[in-house]
Amino acid sequence: MAPASVPSGLESLYNVNHLSVEQSLSCCGVFTTYETRKEYSIKNIKGQILYGAKETTDCLTRQCWRSARPARFKIVDHTKKEVVHMRRPLSCSSCWIPCCLQSIEVSMPKGETLGSVRQRWSPIRPLFHVINEYGKTVLKISGPCYIQCCSFCNCEVHYKILAVDGSKIGRITKLWSGVFRELFSDSNNYDIKFPPDLDVKIKAVLLAACFLIDLQLVK
């Protein structure tokens, strides 16, 4: 049982140390260049679905801006009730331009801030700061070099979750989905691992970080 201090709707994240994020595969997105709305199932280590996530961005925005697009995500529980809202503003998708870096904001449906993820500029690898509801950096995320991020080799891609002192406490892993899916779709699956006693609000923000990483990989 989650304590009363856990925000309503986030109880399923309490004492959890592993999440699987599985993205739905759209046939339209495979055989055409049409950019579909992203949809995900979020599961625990037992394979039980905890939440569903759906992008609500309109069609024109998705086609015009692709990986740089402003995006919104609704996270719903098993009753289809919205429990978390995520908003990513229009941003630059190039690692060579240090302005308009990527970010995503996380809040409760009624507007209560949970935190945010903000990219830090680097020409070598993706770097992000995980920021709590008070604007303080509490974690960092360090990805592999950009060449590995864009490779189609048979391998997993790991993003290290670091404490502010640089010690590793978890990771976000982009799983290998097979040659066909890697080459012809933007549909990716992820594993997220973190300490079970991590604040549930920050766990929700790390889930948003996973979505932000996935948007960067849009072809």
From TrEMBL:
<keyword id="KW-0449">Lipoprotein</keyword>
<protein>
    <recommendedName>
        <fullName>Phospholipid scramblase</fullName>
    </recommendedName>
</protein>
<dbReference type="Pfam" id="PF03803">
    <property type="entry name" value="Scramblase"/>
</dbReference>
<keyword id="KW-0564">Palmitate</keyword>
<dbReference type="InterPro" id="IPR005552">
    <property type="entry name" value="Scramblase"/>
</dbReference>
<comment type="similarity">
    <text>Belongs to the phospholipid scramblase family.</text>
</comment>
<comment type="function">
    <text>May mediate accelerated ATP-independent bidirectional transbilayer migration of phospholipids upon binding calcium ions that results in a loss of phospholipid asymmetry in the plasma membrane.</text>
</comment>
<dbReference type="GO" id="GO:0005886">
    <property type="term" value="C:plasma membrane"/>
</dbReference>
<dbReference type="GO" id="GO:0017128">
    <property type="term" value="F:phospholipid scramblase activity"/>
</dbReference>
<keyword id="KW-0106">Calcium</keyword>
